[in-house]
Amino acid sequence: MSIHVRNVSKSFGDFSALEGVSVDVAGGSLTALLGPSGSGKSTLLRIIAGLETPDLGEIIIAGEDATGVRVQDRNVGFVFQHYAAFKHMTVRDNIAFGLKVRKRPKAEIREKVDELLKLVQLEAFGHRYPAQLSGGQRQRMALARALAPNPEVLLLDEPFGALDARVRAELRDWLRRLHEEVHVTTIFVTHDQAEAMDVASQIVVMNHGRVEQIGDPTQLYDEPASEFVMQFVGEANRLGDRWVRPHELDLSPDPAPGALEAQIERVTRYGFDARIELVTADGSELLVQVTRDRLEELELVAGQIVGVVALNERTFAGR
Amino acid sequence: MRRYALRFVALGYLAAILIAPLGVVFYRTFQDGFASAWEALSTTETIHAFKLTLIITAIAVPLNTVFGIICAIAIVRRRFPGKGLLNAFIDLPLALSPVVVGLSLFLLYGRTGWFGGFFERHDIQVLFALPAMVIATIFVSLPFVAREVVPTLREVGDEQEQAARTLGASGWQTFRRITLPSIRWAVIYGVILTTARCLGEYGAVAVISGRIQGQTETATLRVEERYDSFDLAGAYAIAIVLALIAIAVLLLMTLVKPREGTT
Amino acid sequence: MLPIAALVWASRSDGTQAFWGSVTSPQAVAALKLTVGAAFIVAVLNAVLGTITAWVLVRDDFRGKSVINSIIDLPFALPTIVAGLTLLALYGPKSPIGIDIAFTRTAILAALMFVTLPFVVRTVQPVLTEIDKEMEEAAKSLGASELTTFRRVIFPNILPGILSGFALAFAKAVGEIGSLVIISGNLPYKTEVSSVFILGQIESGNPAGAAAVAVVLLVISFAILLGVGAIRHFTTRHDRA
After folding, report:
1. What CATH fold (topology level) applies to the domain A237-310?
2. Across the interface, do B173 and A145 touch by the CB < 8 Å criterion?
């Protein structure tokens, strides 16, 4: 089911959360809304869910205008940042809730809940209460609960925000695989660009209530549309009014006359590449990424003064 | 040891004010044996007084429970003009003398009052009868349920309710399956407090009941009447029954309280 | 709200002069003075003893603490008239310990102490329970003595609780009647409080006079509600900061 957001604006008091936002999400895709806190990404997600109403604009779900449709009738699955587990119900009852309020037959509910418990790997925990689960388990329960009524759209608000780093990485993989299996149109909100790049096929970058750019991870990294995207997605160096990615800089031990010079502060190496932090004569900091082979070839050490050459650089129209 | 000094002060204070007097009443009531206490309790007027108290309580408590829950939800979840006013006035019965409450109703429903004429023309006895006593009791016990439910509702937050709505639950389904279970201990606690207040009400009822023996005399009024008639044993006997109810209420409160917020 | 309006209207029905006449009659003034004075003394005593009690219940540990903790609520559960009678049994003419304060102002104080006892305890206790132990430890690690820690760290935190408990106890004491009718003796100019005075005026067929004094009590109640609201407002702002 495709989702189209058309020119949506929303203010809370005198704070303008969204200004003329338009986003198209293809049916069956996995989209991330990425932005810093206060960028309006959660508000947009809640408007798509029907938890908030837009001041202007419209929401079209599966070709039908859903702007005035109540949350209850929108058939969206929503996963809350802090899970919103029904504390007085067991895991089974939590998952069954959406089916029970739709007055489905008991046998069907039981079957569906069993299926979902298996999908989220909580078969052994059906009779526990949310308080007896770990954070990751609770999140998976919340996901199963949202999926139970077969929603047309699955919406997740910072789904991994409250979890520790390892569980987070696990759940990320798991969400991607789940999406391949279930194939429901999915939108999730995150402030973590690595998470968005890792999971989503399409990323909507937001800032100050506006959409900065929409694209796949490669597009955002290689062809950022604005300074904001350049800085927010991936790492970036600023050279005057030009911008360059860390891997697009090269170093030479003997700087050519007139070339930009910088002193090496620190060299760190792990995995495939090495990261070199430098300071230029005017005090600005640079980050350079080279392969470890290249690092060994150059024989760089901290304190050394080197020449910096940009292999590719961009400028953005002033904003 | 300062700790023991503080403990001594606190416990001594409680003993002098709370525990010792109650003990003496128990002792006085039963010093002549159970038989005389039972005799004092089984007079027609006394039985009627207890019945009347129970009837009033049975009407006031359910009404105040429903009203309290609605008010609490309105205060915490809704935005509407005059909300601040409602929030402030809900506590008024706690701060206001019950005699003042009784007098207000007396003036409103009395012969010369705003509503008095209406009821007199339709030959409905409000003042010095059950209706006024029920209204007075409802008024003085109004805030207890709302006061208990409001903080719990705030603490629970509305995420669970939003989740229920995204799962397709209607407003009523959300209330019955999500909101009510999460506030149920607060509601029960509020109901216990309301019940205690209804059973023990004196001031407002003293003003508007007319204290007609065997007709509009509640248990608390009966205690005073027995005392004024120099029937100390009778007064003590009724007081003991009310005190036992109070202790039962206390036990219920203790049982319910630790569960608050842990559901 | 309607009953309140009727009350104010009735108090003014005989004109402003009659209103002032009723309020300033010597008996009414004596009753009001006694009521407000006794309520104030009781509220202050409760603020101190209630805070100590809350402290003992939270920080101390002894056998039977949970029973004591439950008993604190007894004055909420016990009909006030029964409370009056129980105090009379212990501190009345037939006192087993030989203390007879019946029909004196001391008796009024005792009865009011009883009925207002839970307020301060129950407003201070939760705050004290929630106070971060770390905050206290931080103060001590910075070199503050026990007394300084209490004065500069704990006390400012429980003060709003003490104040709202104080206000509620004061309001309750001003309006109290049930526990007083038996033990105070209701002697005009001596042990007659305003609530009892109002009841007496109604029973002797002077509802307008009763209404006048009732309006004064009403104003006091409103003032207290506003005060409690202000305290609540202040503390939540404190929390947000």
Report:
1. OB fold (Dihydrolipoamide Acetyltransferase, E2P) (2.40.50)
2. no
Query: In sequence order, what DSSP letters do the residues of chain B get, joined into one string?
Result: -HHHHHHHHHHHHHIIIIIHHHHHHHHHHHTT-HHHHHHHHTSHHHHHHHHHHHHHHHHHHHHHHHHHHHHHHHHHH---TTHHHHHHHTTHHHHS-HHHHHHHHHHHHSTTSTTHHHHHHTT---TTSHHHHHHHHHHHTTHHHHHHHHHHHHHH-SHHHHHHHHTT--HHHHIIIIIHHHHHHHHHHHHHHHHHHHHH--HHHHHHHTT-TTTT--HHHHHHHHHHTT-HHHHHHHHHHHHHHHHHHHHHHHHHGGGTTT-
Which positions in chain B touch C52 (Cβ < 8 Å)? 6, 9-10, 13
What six digits make up the tokens of A200? 């989503």
Question: Which of A175-179, B39-43, C3-7, C148-152 has the largest mean confidence?
Answer: A175-179
Q: Are residues B42 and B67 in the same domain?
A: yes
Put the strands of the sheet holding A3-12 in their side by side order: A15-25, A3-12, A56-61, A64-65
Confidence of residue A114 (pLDDT cuts 50, 70, 90): very high
Residue C20's identity, in one-letter code, is W
Q: Would the pLDDT of C23 be above 90?
A: no
pTM, two decimals, is 0.79
Superfamily grouping for domain A3-228 = P-loop containing nucleotide triphosphate hydrolases (3.40.50.300)
The whole-angstrom separation of Cα B187 and Cα B182 is 10
Distance separating alpha carbons of residues B263 and B260, to the nearest angstrom: 7
Q: Within the 103-162 window of chain C, which residues sit less than 8 Å (CB to CB) from chain B? A: 110, 113-114, 117
Distances (CA, A) of A1 to A27, A83, A138, A200: 4, 25, 27, 17
**ipTM for the whole complex:** 0.83
What are A245-265's pLDDT values in tens digits?
998 888 888 877 777 888 898
Closest to A22 in 3D by CA, of A213, A288, A168, A163 = A213
Query: What number of other Cβ atoms are within 10 A of residue B2's Cβ?
Result: 7
- All partners of chain C with 3 or more CB pairs under 8 angstroms: B
Structural domain for B107, as ranges: 34-262
A82/B164 touch (CB, cutoff 8 Å), yes or no: no
Contact B144, B197 (CB under 8 A): yes
* CATH superfamily assigned to domain C17-236: MetI-like (1.10.3720.10)
Contact B170, B184 (CB under 8 A): no
Confidence of residue B262 (pLDDT cuts 50, 70, 90): very low
User: CB A51 to CB B170 under 8 A?
Assistant: no
Report d(CA C66, CA B192) in Å as an integer: 19
- Tell which residue, C204, C177, C148, C208, has the closest CA to residue C11: C208
Is residue B259 over pLDDT 60? Answer: no
What would the pLDDT profile of C106-121 be if each residue is shown by its tens digit?
Answer: 889 989 998 998 999 9
Which of C229, C239, C224 shows the shortest CA–CA distance to C156?
A: C239
For chain A, what's the residue count? 319
Distance, in Å, from the CA atom of B218 to the CA atom of C71, rounded to the nearest integer, reads: 26
pLDDT tens across B106-130, in order?
Answer: 888 876 666 766 777 777 777 788 8
| B103 closest CB neighbour out of C60, C73, C210 | C210
C75, C117 Cβ separation under 8 angstroms:
yes
pLDDT value of residue B252 = 84
